[in-house]
Design goal:
This protein has about 220 residues and is α+β, with helices and mostly antiparallel strands. It has six helices and eight strands; from the N terminus they run ααββααββαββββα. It has an eight-stranded mixed beta sheet with strand order 2-1-3-4-6-5-7-8.
Length: about 220
Amino acid sequence: MLFSLLPLATVGWLAAAPSAPTTTPVVAATVVEVASAAAVGITQRAADDATVAVPLFDVNHRETRIFRIGRDGTVDDATRQDIERVFRCKRTEHQHQIDSGSLAMLADVSARWPGQTIELVSAYRRTDRRTSRHRQARAIDFRIQGVKMAEVRDYVWSSNTELGLGWYPEQNFIHMDHRPGDADYAWTQVKGRERGGPSWSKRVRRNEVLRVPGSRVGL
């Protein structure tokens, strides 16, 4: 044997020498780290897809905020409290939890026009009669900077049910409310007079049902 031909000191040194280091644990750890980072990225993208960033300017209190609202209208507790504050009654400063169905429609509108600031004209109104959707915190009056409100009007009317939608062309805003269990209702208000079932609402729904090739909803 080779060991028998070497001095005892040399044999002892060889026996005690550490084995050559291996890079396998390092490679394995790197793979795990990459997999974890990928999983975090996928989770974050899923969270981003499930929510919408809603840039909003409150015209009454002159505040600008960006809310992240779930596509189903859900929000975390901190966001819910912040929305209640911004959407508060402009006359009494009272706050109320905003209906999730209304927030879902608002998120959908913002997703349709990403990055465009939504101007909040009115939301919760404590002084309205009890049957008012504003009093019930189910209604939002708004406009979008740089977007024709007739286009927004047609989109909302064609994309939702259990909906109340009013168009106010003189003030350049639309009223949008969630009315679960009730029939859809659309109106136009001009010079203080409300006209229910306006021609644009019938045309939009007709085009949506027929899906005429090449047609544009609400034109």
